[in-house]
Specification:
With 117 residues, the protein is an all-beta fold. It contains no helices and 10 strands. The strands form 2 sheets. It has a 6-stranded mixed sheet with strand order 2-10-9-4-5-6, with no helix packed on it. A hairpin with a 4-residue loop joins strand 7 and strand 8. The mean pLDDT is 97.
């Protein structure tokens, strides 16, 4: 059974930092590109960062230079370090493969990030 468990969210002031973690089980993690997606209230889910199996990273322009994605294949875990947070980063954050795959049938609960001005 596939499980994606996100953690590390919280409420911070603008300019603050958070580190999100996502523990994956039931997937072929080491050979799967992974990504962090977010969904703000009333908006569509969007991909903000992704990391290939080889460690190549890509970022949405809105987070470039502020967020860093990384992965630990030994722990089946992907991370998102978020610095210089802005109120517009407020959303529920989810991990999954960056593009549609069979794992998109198994979204986790997500972790809420709230940034106040």
């Amino acid at each position: 059974q596939v499980h994606l468990v996100e953690s590390g969210g919280g409420s911070v002031q603008a300019g603050g930092s958070l580190r999100l973690s996502c523990a994956a089980s039931g997937i072929m993690f080491s050979i799967s590109p992974m990504g962090w997606h977010r969904q703000a209230t009333g908006k569509q889910r969007e991909l903000v960062a992704s990391i290939s199996t080889g460690g190549t990273t890509t970022y949405d322009d809105s987070v470039k230079g502020r967020f860093t994605i990384s992965r630990d294949n030994a722990k089946n875990t992907v991370y998102l370090q978020m610095n210089s947070l802005k109120p517009e980063d407020t959303a529920v954050y989810y991990c999954n493969t960056p593009i549609r795959s069979m794992y998109w049938n198994y979204w986790g609960q997500g972790t809420q990030v709230t940034v106040s001005s």
